[in-house]
Amino acid sequence: MIFLIWFSFFALFFLYYINRLSTSFCIKKEIPEERQDRFYRTINVLITILLVSTYLEILYAT
What are the pLDDT digits (tens) for 8-47? Predict the structure, then answer.
């Protein structure tokens, strides 16, 4: 149970930080507003899949 709480905080921090980096990237590369939504959605879905698969791998490895 403690691991789930710890991993949840880690995942939220990781998603927040990735979104900040994505925002900086969009500003630096001057990506148009209409493409930014798709960019954020893609990044968030891929990172969420990565986090879920990591959680499941750690959960079943122990």
Answer: 999 999 999 999 999 999 999 999 999 999 999 999 999 9
> What range does the domain containing 47 cover?
2-61
Number of domains composing the chain: 1
Q: How far apart are CA 30 and CA 4, in angstroms?
A: 38
Give dist(CA 38, CA 1) in Å, integer: 35
pTM: 0.85
Answer yes or no: are the C-beta atoms of 39 and 31 closer than 8 Å: yes
CA 20, CA 17: separation in Å to the nearest integer? 5
